[in-house]
Design a protein that fits this description.
single chain, about 150 residues, alpha+beta, Alpha-Beta Plaits, four-stranded antiparallel β-sheet, Arc Repressor Mutant, subunit A
Amino acid sequence: MKTEETNKKILNILVDNSRLSLRQIAKKADVSVATVMHHVKRLEEEKVIKGYTAKLDYEKLGFDVEVLIEIRISKGKLFEVEKKIATHPNVFAIYDVTGTFDAVILARFPTRRLMDNFLKKIQTYEFVERTETKLILSTIKEENIKVG
């Protein structure tokens, strides 16, 4: 089996369940434990595998308010503003985008009041020209994709 195919098999197994042991991964991928160990180590070193984590049900944890915030930022100040927003503990993703806005922020809050405080705070940041907030009503699909 080629290295690339082995990597894809291992990655897809990890996407399904990153808690499997090397032995379990080897069995599913039909390769040796040493092969899995070698590939996983290399994928971690190359930062293809960035870490291992648990999937949480944030609603059950009290984070009932999830928002998508589009933000327009003054020319040349995008990275500076994004870096500042990224430090907020409720922000879980920031993307540079094309279109009428420059960035999209995804965040979760336990209450509308905390979300409102966050919005009012970022609207005071220098170089933030405009924001538009969308309340996420329900999540239909949110998961890692398999590599082809």
